[in-house]
UniProtKB/TrEMBL annotation:
Belongs to the SecE/SEC61-gamma family. It comes from Lipingzhangella rawalii. It is a single-pass membrane protein. InterPro entries: SecE_bac, SecE_sf, Translocase_SecE/Sec61-g. The keyword Protein biosynthesis does not apply. It comes from the Bacteria. This is Protein translocase subunit SecE. The chain crosses the membrane at residues 41-66. Component of the Sec protein translocase complex. Heterotrimer consisting of SecY, SecE and SecG subunits. The heterotrimers can form oligomers, although 1 heterotrimer is thought to be able to translocate proteins. Interacts with the ribosome. Interacts with SecDF, and other proteins may be involved. Interacts with SecA.
């Protein structure tokens, strides 16, 4: 007997597990995780904090430059000067 295309590739539907089995599986998987040592955790924390401070400085600097550019662009005194220069 030949199989049709739909029957040959059919996979059984995955069954849902109950919450107790799921929790046991999660705890078992967490047991396999390689947790960082205290020294690694401190090092990673310092690296992240330094990176965040650098990004804060960068965003603050870019914001200040754009703010100064907008103030310069819309300065009323500069607008009066441009009117005298441009006919």
């Amino acid at each position: 007997m030949t199989q049709t295309h739909g029957e040959a590739g059919a996979k059984p539907e995955p069954r849902r597990t109950n919450p107790v089995v799921f929790t046991r599986q999660v705890v078992a998987e967490l047991g396999k995780v390689r947790w960082p040592t205290r020294w690694e955790l401190i090092t990673y924390t310092i690296v992240v904090m330094v990176f965040v401070l650098i990004m804060i400085g960068y965003v603050t600097g870019v914001d200040w430059v754009f703010g100064q550019g907008v103030l310069w662009l819309y300065d009323p005194e500069r607008a009066g000067v441009l009117e005298t220069i441009l006919p």
